[in-house]
């Protein structure tokens, strides 16, 4: 049951991540490829990188909590 909940958690966080990336790069889909400037691409990649790192940490929070619980239990074993 816990594995199913983790899979659903990863899907939920991944869906939010994709939604935010789509919102960041929504302007890039409307302009033709030859008119995309390098600066606009860089301005979109930097926040996308930060959002990716933040969502990566959020997705791994249950794993860290489980590791801390196992470590505490092993101290008292």
- Rg is 18 Å
Query: What's the total count of β strands?
Result: 0
Distance linking N and C termini: 25 Å
Helix content: over 70%
Shape estimate: elongated
How much is the average pLDDT? 83
- The ordered string of helix (H) and strand (E) elements is HHH
Keywords: Membrane, Transmembrane, Transmembrane helix
Transmembrane segments: 6-25, 46-73
Protein name: DUF3923 family protein
Layout of secondary structure:
Layout: H1 2-24, H2 26-30, H3 38-75
Helix pairs in contact: 1-3
Transmembrane segments: 6-25, 46-73
Organism: Lactobacillus paragasseri
Keywords: Membrane, Transmembrane, Transmembrane helix
What does it look like?
- By secondary structure, this protein is mainly α.
- It has one domain (2-75).
- The chain is 86% helix and 0% strand.
- It is built from three helices and no strands.
- The protein has helices spanning 2-24, 26-30, 38-75.
- It starts with a helix and ends with a helix.
Brief write-up:
By secondary structure, the protein is mainly alpha-helical. It is 86% helix and 0% strand. The protein has helices at 2-24, 26-30, 38-75.
Keywords:
DUF3923 family protein, 3 helices, elongated, mainly alpha, 77 residues, transmembrane, single chain
């Amino acid at each position: 049951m816990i594995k199913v909940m983790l899979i659903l958690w990863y899907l939920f966080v991944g869906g939010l991540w994709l939604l935010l990336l789509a919102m960041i790069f929504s302007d890039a889909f409307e302009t033709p490829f030859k008119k995309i400037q390098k600066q606009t691409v860089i301005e979109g990649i930097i926040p996308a990188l930060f959002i990716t790192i933040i969502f990566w940490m959020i997705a791994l929070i249950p794993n860290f909590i489980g590791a801390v619980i196992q470590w505490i239990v092993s101290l008292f074993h």
